[in-house]
């Protein structure tokens, strides 16, 4: 079985320990995530696993002939050939084996060398070529490239025609094509839209090898991995289960850690106050020196709270009052070349309190629509009417690039923050990944991603009642997304947004606008409902306009323009087809009752999973406390006490095994619903 294994690996950069006695084993079937705050060394650890960085100490073992594929976060480009030709380079190992095969064939024909050994190697190569998928490389390459969002026309384009994000998709595709034994992926979802993420999710679920990945997409992780490694202060800890389960377990651990941290900080404060007060007095010098020694000893083992697990909350300034109708868009039509219409006769009604997500493939016109609504793009047909008292806040990756000047990040945010939020500015900057001396960087030296985060934070501090957000979660880690999500959910105004983060969309959206070439549809209900609808349609279920144009869950009927949009426009493939007949009242009632029954069962299953997770967290916390007790000399030096504690640890270990089995059974049942 192929594997990559660490044993007590250590690595330092200067006086900083990146890895301290780290041990980990990846093998076929491993489905692991690597997490930790920004700057903890996740990318470094993956590079060590890939063999690109040599550790200072410890062993890295790789099984013979194991194929390891590694994808960095960024920086890869491809040029000089077509996309199809570049993809074929992923199979270079197969071409090398073919050359060896031809040489063996010549040697056998000429009677050279050990004939038996040559025949055995010949058969081994044929088997390896078949198992590696080399003989099916063309079909495999097309399948993976199309799955990651490339079109058939793209296959013959020169690689240099693709932007940076698409360049990374090419690199990801090549890593998947080689059918590696071990796959190491550093932020593979950064440049993927939601459709490509879903395809990659399915690929990894069916992948027979082992993988370790870093991602800030909680939904993606929850649906692909079954173990989490957390890197913190150079130490690596393993947690079984999906990412949400890890967070719950870690939260329980963190409560204990915070209590210990607060006690230690209080002790540090008292010692420091004594030293500062009496250090210069001759009569107290000896005592001050003694306390300095005590302080130094504490600081050697100072407790640090992981940045990615700190809970930071903030609220928007109160949204100014606006009328019920926030915006009305009628017959919006947009073309960039005068021939192809990105948007065609689109109607949309936004009401106060809506959180509307715009869904659709790349090129469907999502960003275009947001620019039109924000007033940035005025070159279109149709009309946009804003309601009374509407004030707009618009965010996109483009307007972030306009940030310039010598002012620091801290000065910029403090100058624009409302008075009541100024005490929280440092916390908010920390939530958006500006920590320590980073807050003193001037705007002129910031990277594109850093400018994007500053621009987003500036927007969130302004008192507006209509937020238009184009990919607000780009360049944010999971913790930052949570802070943003919580703030948006408590926002008192209206939100229309585009995002590729499935979990973020599901948590925030209350309505969905679907854009496709030639037509559009609005869906009342959240994104989960929208995906269920698409699944039903894919299974051939016919759904009438009456069913679609139901109440949006707030007792408000959809506008005539929006209801009209639910039918295909004259440009759509379904035009002219007979409308499906609405369900009878009895059928609708049965459907409703069945749906309520299923929802009830699902809630019970979710409650059971949560209950078991809480029991696991409690048991793991109790076990950790007992294990800490065993490190106490008063316990391990006392045979009777040590035996009692060990008995309790054994009982908890048994209990945890039973609870984990229950959790897996309950989680599987819930997943099947």
The best one-word shape is: globular
| Poorly predicted parts | 549-590
Radius of gyration: 29 Å
The neighbouring-strand order within the major sheet is 5-6-7-3-8-9
The percent of residues in helical segments reads 40-55%
Q: Helix count, per DSSP?
A: 23
The percent range for strand residues is 15-25%
Short summary of the structure?
By secondary structure, the protein is of the alpha/beta class. The protein is 46% helix and 18% strand.
What's the structural blueprint in terms of helices and strands?
Elements: E1 3-13, E2 16-27, E3 31-35, H1 42-50, E4 57-62, E5 68-71, H2 83-88, H3 92-110, H4 115-132, H5 137-147, H6 164-177, E6 182-186, H7 194-206, E7 210-214, H8 218-222, E8 227-232, E9 235-240, H9 243-278, H10 285-300, E10 325-335, E11 341-351, E12 355-359, H11 366-374, E13 381-386, E14 392-395, H12 397-400, H13 409-416, H14 425-431, H15 448-460, E15 466-470, H16 478-489, E16 494-498, H17 502-508, E17 511-516, E18 519-524, H18 527-538, H19 545-548, H20 560-565, H21 585-630, H22 633-636, H23 639-671
Parallel strand pairs: 3-7, 3-8, 5-6, 6-7, 12-16, 12-17, 14-15, 15-16
Antiparallel strand pairs: 1-2, 1-4, 8-9, 10-11, 10-13, 17-18
Helix pairs in contact: 3-4, 5-6, 9-10, 9-21, 21-23
């Amino acid at each position: 079985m192929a594997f990559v294994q660490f044993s007590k690996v250590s690595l330092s950069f200067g006086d900083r320990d990146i890895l301290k006695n780290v041990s980990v084993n990846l093998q076929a079937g491993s489905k692991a995530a690597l997490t930790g705050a920004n700057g903890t060394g996740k990318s470094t650890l993956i590079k060590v696993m890939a063999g690109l960085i040599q550790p200072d100490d410890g062993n890295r073992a790789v099984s013979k002939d194991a194929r390891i594929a590694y994808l960095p976060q960024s920086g890869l480009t491809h040029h000089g050939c077509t996309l199809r030709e570049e993809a074929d380079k992923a199979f270079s190992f197969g071409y090398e084996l073919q050359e060896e095969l031809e040489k063996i064939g010549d040697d056998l024909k000429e009677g050279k060398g050990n004939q038996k050994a040559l025949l055995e190697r010949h058969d081994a190569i044929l088997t390896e070529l078949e198992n590696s998928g080399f003989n099916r490389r063309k079909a495999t390459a097309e399948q993976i490239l199309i799955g990651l969002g490339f079109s058939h026309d793209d296959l013959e384009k020169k690689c240099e025609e693709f932007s940076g994000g698409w360049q990374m998709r090419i690199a990801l595709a090549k890593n998947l094509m080689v059918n590696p034994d071990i796959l190491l992926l550093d932020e593979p979802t950064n440049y993927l839209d939601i459709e490509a993420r879903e395809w990659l999710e399915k690929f990894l679920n069916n992948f027979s090898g082992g993988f370790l990945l870093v991602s800030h997409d909680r939904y993606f992780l929850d649906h692909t991995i079954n173990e989490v490694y957390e890197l913190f202060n150079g130490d690596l800890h393993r947690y079984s289960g999906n990412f949400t389960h890890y967070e719950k377990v870690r939260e329980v651990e963190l409560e204990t850690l915070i209590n210990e941290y607060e006690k230690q900080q209080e002790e540090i404060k008292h010692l420091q106050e004594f030293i500062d007060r009496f250090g210069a007095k001759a009569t107290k010098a000896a005592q001050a020196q003694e306390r300095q020694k005590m302080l130094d000893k504490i600081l050697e083992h100072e407790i640090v709270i992981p940045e990615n697990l700190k809970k930071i909350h903030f609220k928007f300034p109160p949204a100014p009052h606006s009328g019920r109708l926030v915006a009305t868009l009628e017959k919006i039509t947009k073309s960039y070349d005068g021939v192809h219409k990105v948007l065609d006769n689109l109607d949309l009604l936004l009401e106060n309190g809506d959180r509307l997500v715009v869904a659709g493939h790349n090129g469907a016109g999502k960003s275009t629509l947001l620019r039109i609504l924000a007033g940035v793009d005025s070159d279109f047909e149709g009309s946009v009417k804003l309601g009374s008292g509407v004030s707009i806040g618009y965010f996109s990756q483009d307007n972030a690039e306009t940030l310039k000047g010598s002012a620091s990040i801290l000065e910029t945010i403090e100058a624009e923050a409302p008075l009541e939020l100024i005490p929280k500015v440092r916390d908010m900057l920390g939530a958006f990944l500006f920590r320590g001396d980073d807050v003193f960087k001037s705007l002129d030296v910031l990277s594109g991603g850093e400018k994007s985060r500053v621009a987003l934070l500036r927007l969130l501090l302004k008192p507006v009642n209509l937020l238009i957000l184009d990919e607000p979660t780009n360049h944010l880690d999971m913790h930052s997304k949570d802070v943003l999500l919580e703030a948006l959910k408590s926002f008192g105004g209206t939100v229309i947004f585009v995002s590729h983060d499935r979990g973020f969309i599901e948590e925030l959206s209350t309505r969905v606008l679907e854009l496709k070439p030639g037509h559009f549809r609005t869906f009342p209900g959240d994104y989960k409902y929208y995906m269920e609808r698409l699944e039903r349609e894919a299974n051939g279920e016919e759904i009438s306009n009456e069913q679609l144009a139901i109440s949006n869950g707030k007792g408000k009927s959809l506008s005539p323009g929006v209801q009209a949009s639910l039918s295909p426009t004259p440009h759509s493939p379904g035009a002219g087809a007979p409308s499906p007949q609405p369900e009878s009242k009895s059928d609708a009632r049965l459907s409703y009752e069945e749906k309520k029954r299923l929802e009830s069962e699902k809630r019970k299953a979710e409650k059971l999973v949560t209950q078991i997770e809480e029991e696991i967290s409690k048991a793991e916390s109790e076990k950790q406390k007992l294990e800490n007790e065993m490190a106490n000399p008063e316990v391990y030096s006392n045979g009777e006490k040590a035996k009692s504690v060990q008995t309790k640890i054994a009982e908890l270990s048994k209990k945890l095994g039973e609870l984990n089995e229950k959790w897996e059974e309950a989680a599987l049942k819930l997943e099947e619903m």
